[in-house]
Write a structure and sequence with these properties.
Blueprint: H1 7-15, H2 18-27, H3 30-60, H4 82-98, H5 104-107, E1 121-124, H6 126-131, E2 143-146, H7 148-156, H8 163-180, E3 189-190, E4 202-205, H9 223-237, E5 243-246, H10 250-258, E6 262-264, E7 282-284, H11 289-293, E8 298-302, E9 305-311, E10 323-326, E11 332-340, E12 343-348, H12 367-376, E13 383-388, H13 394-408, E14 414-419, H14 435-439, H15 444-455, H16 473-482, E15 484-486, E16 500-505, H17 512-519, E17 527-532, H18 548-556, E18 562-567, H19 574-582
Helix pairs in contact: 1-3, 12-13, 13-15, 17-18
Length: 583
């Protein structure tokens, strides 16, 4: 074979090894040394080629077949002593094997469970479980401890149709499944036993009595104080571990810190830490906007709407369906339709501040109201959220757009209105009657706005050419009421709304889970409008950062079929405007 190494070449190569190099240099002439060097280079080249073919053959061979062992040839001693060469060969083979693509299962980064000393121990208050039934699986690699008093409180809240009762029952089912998967409760139940691979910690239940004595004497028997006693006992039982109380109750967190314990709020469902960072749907443009973006402008018209394609550095900051405006000599009020790198497509808006473009007799009184009406009347916008303080016109605009698209254009079959029944003051007890009769006391805002929409022209600045002005007022009001349905949140599960205009009023009082339940009820042809003011949250343990309204505003921003506007100016009355600012 052409690559076979001759005996003469081999003997010459052996003569060049470090052990034989000194005698060779003493006896060989310069010509012989030169010839030997050429021979060594030739042999090294052939040996390298042979090694490369051997490696290629190994890679091409099926994994099940084990290649036969090839004895080392004398050429392996060309550069180093034999023992070192063998070690280097084995090391190179191992390194070569490690660079091969690993199987998919081996390449997948699987998180491992940390030792107990490195895992935090979170003691959950009952309100955390009632707030989020999935909170058991939201603490990643850390452990969860549930005192016996928490299980007792869960049992007290499991009856009823409220969201709290549903969460209590769901948590109980989770706990039952985890316990059934565990052989020894003393050692704890693995939280990933139900398939949630993000929860790598363990669930620990109180299985024995603990010394609940606290440094400060507190009233005995109160659930909060029992939980504090459990945390104090766990700190003594696990001195090397970090024990943290997690609660939505501010007062128990204050007591825990006063007693030298670590306490935290449940923040997993919090969207924002600062409500001022919430997306408002409007972006003011700088004065030099046209200098940087007006060079290569393309414009065209489609269905009566003018579109502009602009290019510039600010385009990358735009979001789809965001409104932009520029006041001055060259004013611009537009909506972002498309964003692609440093280019964007803007579209002009319909001016609803003029009577000819009124919506059910309502005209926009400020810039943000005009933006809101453009979204509400857009059939491609399936989800609209309106935020604003009292008197900014949220309910009036949403209801006017709903009536116009239900009774005039027949785009929707009916209007459905719902809201969270959270009282501002003391509850008035059980209410008699049907579902709509029970919801009637909560729908005072609906009645007030229907009165405004029904009056027609006059002191409410309604358009005189409104279709409602030509009808008999009483029959018109009956027709309007027949197309508006008031529904309770408690009966929304399992329903699907087709071609409906759904208004969710006071949405700031909903949790993210409740909001998801409502929005996922939408079927084909349905528009959902969420209204609220995150400064007026009445639901216990709900904050501006964890409200369901904040949640949907943040998650839907930039989606081509959703839009959001924060209304800035109050238009109810000068008294209401001053009260909103001064009180």
């Amino acid at each position: 074979m052409g690559d076979r190494i001759t005996k003469e070449e081999t003997s010459t190569a052996q003569a060049l090894t470090p052990s034989a190099a000194a005698p060779a240099r003493k006896t060989a002439t310069k010509a012989v040394a030169k010839k030997a060097a050429k021979t060594a280079a030739k042999v090294a080249k052939k040996a390298t080629a042979a090694t490369a073919r051997t490696t290629a053959a190994k890679r091409a061979a099926p994994p099940a077949a084990t290649p036969p062992a090839v004895p080392a040839t004398p050429t392996e001693t060309l550069f180093e002593d034999a023992p070192q060469t063998i070690a280097a060969s084995e090391s190179g083979s191992a390194q070569e094997t490690s660079t091969q693509p690993a199987p998919r299962s081996a390449r997948a980064t699987k998180r491992t469970r940390l030792p107990a000393a490195q895992r935090k121990l979170f003691v959950l208050d009952t309100n955390v479980l009632l707030h989020d039934s999935n909170s058991l699986f939201k603490f990643e690699e850390h452990d969860i401890y549930l005192p016996m008093i928490v299980l007792e409180e869960l049992d007290h809240h499991k009856k009823g149709m409220s969201e709290v009762a549903r969460n209590a029952r769901q948590v109980s089912r989770f706990l039952d499944s985890l316990v059934n998967e565990t052989a020894d409760l003393e050692k704890g139940a693995n939280l990933d036993a139900l398939g949630n691979q993000e929860a790598l910690g363990q669930l620990l239940l109180q299985t024995s009595a603990l010394d609940l004595a606290l440094p400060i004497e507190l009233p005995v028997g109160k659930a909060d104080h029992v939980i504090l006693g459990v945390v104090h006992a766990l700190k003594a039982q696990y001195p090397k571990r970090t024990v943290v109380l997690v609660s939505k109750d501010i007062n128990i967190r204050l007591k825990a810190r006063a007693l030298g314990m670590e306490a935290e709020d449940y923040r997993n469902d919090r969207v924002l830490d600062d409500s001022d960072l919430l997306y408002d749907g409007v972006l003011p443009l700088p004065e030099n906007f046209w200098l940087k973006h007006g060079k290569d402008v393309e414009s065209w018209q489609q269905s009566g709407v003018t579109y502009y394609r602009i290019k510039g550095p600010l385009c990358s900051e735009f979001l789809v369906n965001q409104f932009v405006y520029l006041e001055g000599d060259m004013p611009l009020h537009a909506q972002v339709r498309e964003v692609s790198g440093k280019s964007a497509v803007l579209s002009t808006l319909r001016d609803h501040s003029h009577g000819r473009n009124s919506v059910w007799g309502i005209t926009a009184r400020n810039r943000e109201q005009n933006f809101a009406l453009n979204m509400l009347m857009n059939p491609d916008c399936d989800f609209v959220s309106l935020l604003g303080q009292a008197g900014t016109g949220k309910t009036l605009l949403a209801l006017a757009a709903g009536l116009a698209q239900t009774l005039e254009s027949n785009r929707y079959s009916e209007i459905i209105i719902t809201r969270a029944t959270v009282p501002v003051g003391d509850d008035i007890g059980f209410l008699p009657g049907t579902e709509e009769e029970k919801m009637a006391p909560w729908m005072g805002a609906l009645e007030d706005n229907l009165e405004v929409l029904h009056l027609g022209a006059g002191r409410h600045d309604l358009a005189s050419d409104s279709g409602a002005a030509d009808w008999n007022k009483q029959s018109t009001l009956e027709l309007i009421r027949s197309r508006i349905k008031v529904k309770s949140l408690n009966f929304m599960r399992g329903r699907t709304f087709l071609n409906k205009y759904l208004i969710i009023d006071e949405a700031q009082n909903l949790t993210p889970k409740q909001m998801k339940t409502l929005v996922t009820r939408a079927g084909p042809g349905t528009k959902i409008v969420c209204l609220g003011n995150i400064a007026q949250i009445d639901t216990p343990y709900l904050t501006e950062g964890s409200s369901g309204l904040t949640y949907v505003v943040d998650r839907f921003k930039g989606w081509p079929h959703a839009g959001h506007i924060t209304l800035q100016r109050g238009e109810r009355s000068r008294l209401a405007d001053y009260a909103s600012e001064a009180l």
